[in-house]
Write a structure and sequence with these properties.
heterotetramer, A alpha+beta (373), B alpha/beta (153), C alpha/beta (200), D mainly alpha (116), A: 373 residues, alpha+beta, Cytochrome-c3 Hydrogenase, chain B, 3-stranded antiparallel sheet, 8 strands, globular, D: 116 residues, mainly alpha
Chain lengths: 373, 153, 200, 116
């Protein structure tokens, strides 16, 4: 029997809920003002700035070496890649020729950073969707990468190992051995990640067909990184504009066309395999050479604009330096991947449930200081 | 499409432009304030150029003019250009919005308004995104002074 | 100058009437803070303090990079649940401790103050990382960073580092436990009462 | 005859609950301010009126859950003794379950469980 439509359909008003600065699913201090009707989301209006530390204003008064130290506080999960972006931009300005050894080491460390970031993302995505064990599995493996970073770069998270002109000092003698150990260990653990979460029916129901972003919208919103590649928009900077040693390694760019949360999840998991294979291709033949091209103490970029983009774990980070020839830049702008991805959140989350918004945000993998700068 | 062909094609559109390539790696167009919106719409609509990706919007303060620099790319034709636009009026700077052409501009223009004070005509809800609504002054301008918070070194 | 001339100013006596003997050239002004320490603790107090110090529930409050190190400390290798901190609560009503992991920005300061006020007594605050102590790398030339979280709420333990290692955070947590163990229910003053924000 | 267990049980319950509340009030320091009374919403004040007529679906779900919660509460004592009551008790409980099942079917068909 058909569902009898009650005459006086009880009208429910929309109201506002703060998915506010201090919220477990906000991955930091992102405030989303949700207009909701019951459980369905009518509108998502982000209110940013709760971790805006005015990095771009500081860069206008800092020397180029000092800017490098600020960038890894921006997207702290791909801190090495951010540093590399600024160093490459400065080296492009100075037309410095970087020895091969530096390029290969930078690429290996970038891929290790990407792995560490994807591990944390995987652990926290599981936790957001309700599976707490993924957090402990992911952080157990992440500790191994942190030990490698600590031994070579001296810091676990914000490692300022890159300076314009190369690396601060050479790699640790048993860096190669430990990286090989880690790669062998993690190759046995990554299938464990798949067994733990990817096949779980609850997880699939929570993510399949949730938050679909079509390819045209992905381009129109300027989305980049695994979020774009999950919607069929191949935007990998490592392929389109290869930098450091990415032109001499062969790796597959993973692109999926479904565009839903599960596709973004799969893209990142497969990207971890690609990162492992890149490290394997490079770790055995690190060319000899010095680890630094000495530059003048006070770096002065010639007059002009320099734009360098790199592929961080979250997407394309672009460093735009407009220099007028003296020791600190005239204007520095960081094209942050998180900020453009956030512009697509409202379009994707509209009409879904609040629970879907949590899994969508986990699949977008926001790092809020990267958005607020 | 190479830069020369782009320059030739865009010249046929009849906008008053300055095109330069020195000092930057991109082909840069400086367009007038009035026909910014029309120029951008043509850039995206014309199948020969089809700039469908706006990947970077930078607010700029060149000393006496305020302006915005748009980095545009075409995903299928694989070429990139930079469009610059300036406005000399520092009290109430006003530019056309491009968020009806590229959806991401909505957020980026809010950011430029927040830090430079450039209002965008036609923007759906132009508000301060990062700073508190009652923040006076626009921090990224060169003449911004704030002794209360800033410890200058 | 030997240690005894410039008497090290270690403990702030609170409410027990002892005068602070400040060294002559002490630069700053003493803001009475903390819950009073180093007082003889009665049997009942030691039981209460034992219970309280070993079951502090931190609040989910990570603003930036230090939050990652706090998560590392919460994970399996540097497990802080060995000291009773495991249950991290999202809502301030059920939390005893705020670990300010990251930078406090002007827009975030009222939020932090409101969260602190909404927590149930007795509550404690750990300022983790250089940003929470003094604005850290963002002290100079930044128009939006609060130069230190103790301009917003009274802090009990400061943990330097950018970000501090998990072991440093654990040491800070144990230090807080030691501090709680010396509390005295009778003279315990809510740290917010004598608190003033101080200038920049 | 046999009621001592229940008395002890009630006494233990009262003592535990009252003790916990009283003791915690005794030893915990008090501090009250305006912001402590306000609702907690992720650290910022609520936006717009909070006493609004929200979706009726929540209420329907709650009521249905309540019915089956109480139903289980009735099943538990039955489950303890049904072995020596024989098949009569079984038929009674089946009727009881059928009636409530009918109620659920009716609510289901009326669309109470649909969430759109």
């Amino acid at each position: 029997m058909a569902e009898i439509e009650t005459e006086n359909k009880i009208k429910s008003e929309e109201y506002f809920v703060n998915m506010g600065p201090q919220h477990p699913a906000a991955h930091g201090v992102l405030r989303l003002i949700l207009t909701i009707d019951g459980e369905t989301i009518v509108n998502v209006d982000p209110d940013l700035g709760y971790i805006h530390r005015s990095i771009e204003k500081m860069c206008e008064r800092d020397s180029y070496q000092q800017i490098v130290h600020l960038t890894d506080r921006m997207d702290y999960l791909s801190s090495h890649i951010n540093n590399e972006a600024v160093c490459l931009a400065v080296e492009k300005g100075l037309q410095l020729e970087i020895p091969d050894r530096v390029k290969v080491i930078r690429t290996i460390l970038s891929e290790l950073t990407r792995l560490a970031s994807h591990q944390l993302w995987w652990g926290v995505m599981g936790m957001d969707v309700g599976a707490l064990t993924t957090y402990f599995y992911a952080f157990r493996d992440r500790e191994m990468i942190n030990d490698i970073f600590e031994e070579t770069c001296g810091a676990r998270l914000t490692m300022n190992y890159n300076i314009p002109g190369g690396l601060m000092y050479d790699i640790h003698p048993n860096f190669v051995k430990r990286v090989k150990e880690f790669v062998a260990h993690f190759k046995t653990k990554l299938p464990e990640y798949d067994r733990l979460l990817s096949g779980n029916i609850i997880f699939i129901n929570r993510t399949k067909g949730v938050g679909v972003l079509s390819r045209e919208d992905a381009i129109s919103f300027g989305v980049s990184g695994p979020v774009a590649r999950g919607s069929g928009f191949a935007s990998d900077v490592r392929k389109r504009h290869p930098y450091s040693a990415y032109d001499r390694v062969s790796f597959k760019e993973i692109v999926m066309n479904e565009g839903d949360t599960l596709a973004r999840y799969k893209v990142r998991i497969l990207e971890m395999w690609e990162s492992l294979s890149i490290i394997e291709q490079l770790i055995d033949n690190i060319p000899e050479g010095d680890h630094l091209v000495p530059t003048k103490a006070v770096i002065k970029l010639p007059k002009g604009e320099f734009y360098q983009r790199v592929e961080t774990a979250r997407g394309e980070l672009g460093v735009y330096i407009n220099s007028d020839g003296n020791k600190n830049p005239y204007r520095v702008k960081f094209r942050s991947p998180g900020f453009s991805n956030l512009s697509a959140l409202n379009h994707v989350a509209k009409g879904g449930k609040i629970g879907d918004l949590v899994s969508i945000m986990a699949s977008f993998d926001f790092v809020i200081p990267d958005i607020d700068r | 499409m190479s830069n020369e062909e782009l320059i030739k094609l865009i010249d046929t559109w009849g906008f008053t432009l300055q095109t330069t390539e020195e000092g930057t790696e991109f082909l840069t167009f400086t367009v007038r304030k009035e026909d910014l919106h029309e120029f951008c719409r043509k850039l995206k609509a014309d199948p020969a150029t089809h700039f469908d990706l706006l990947f970077c919007v930078t607010g700029m303060d060149w000393g006496n003019e305020l302006g915005v620099i748009y980095h545009l790319a075409s995903t299928d034709l694989k070429h990139e250009i930079v469009v610059k636009v300036m406005t000399a009026d520092r009290e109430t700077p006003e530019l056309d919005t491009v968020c009806d052409i590229w959806r991401t501009a909505e957020f980026h223009e809010m950011e430029v308004f927040d830090f430079f004070g450039i209002r965008f005509k036609g923007h759906p809800n132009l508000k301060r995104l990062f700073l508190t609504p009652d923040w006076d002054g626009y921090p990224l301008r060169k003449d911004y002074v704030d002794e209360a918070n800033m410890v200058i070194k | 100058m030997g240690i005894d001339e410039k008497k090290r100013f270690l403990d702030q006596y609170q409410g027990s009437g002892m005068e602070y003997d400040l060294p002559k050239d002490f630069p700053g002004k003493v803001i009475p803070g903390g819950n009073g320490g180093n007082i003889v603790v009665t049997a009942l107090d030691s039981v209460i303090n034992w219970g309280r110090s070993n079951s502090l529930w931190p609040l989910y409050f990570g603003t930036s990079c230090c939050a990652i190190e706090m998560m590392q400390t919460g994970a399996s290798k540097h497990d802080f649940s060995r000291f009773g901190f495991e249950v991290a609560r999202p809502s301030p009503r059920q939390a005893d401790l705020i670990i300010i992991a990251g930078t406090i920005v002007n827009k975030m300061a009222p939020v932090l103050r409101r969260l602190y006020d909404q927590m149930a007594e007795p509550k404690y605050v750990i300022a983790m990382g250089a940003c929470a102590i003094s604005g850290g790398p963002f002290y100079y030339n930044s128009y939006s960073v609060v130069k230190g979280a103790d301009h917003v709420i009274p802090v009990d333990v400061y943990i330097p580092g950018c970000p501090p290692r998990p072991e440093a955070l654990l040491e800070g947590l144990i230090l807080l436990q030691k501090k709680i163990k010396t509390e005295h229910a009778k003279t315990k003053v809510n740290p917010i009462d004598g608190f003033d924000e101080g200038t920049l | 005859m046999g009621y001592e267990a229940i008395v002890v049980f009630i006494l233990a319950g009262v003592v535990l609950v009252a003790g916990a509340n009283f003791l915690s009030n005794l030893i915990s320091p008090k501090s009250d301010n305006k912001q402590k009374q306000e609702p907690v919403e992720c650290g910022v004040e609520t936006i717009g009126p909070t006493w609004v007529q929200f979706k009726v679906g929540y209420y329907l779900f709650a009521i249905l859950f309540l019915i089956f919660d109480i139903e289980v509460a009735f099943l538990v004592p039955w489950a303890v003794v049904f072995k020596d009551l024989g098949t009569v008790a079984l038929i009674e409980i089946l009727i009881f379950l059928a009636i409530l099942g009918l109620g659920l079917l009716y609510a289901w068909k009326k669309g109470a469980l649909r969430w759109e």
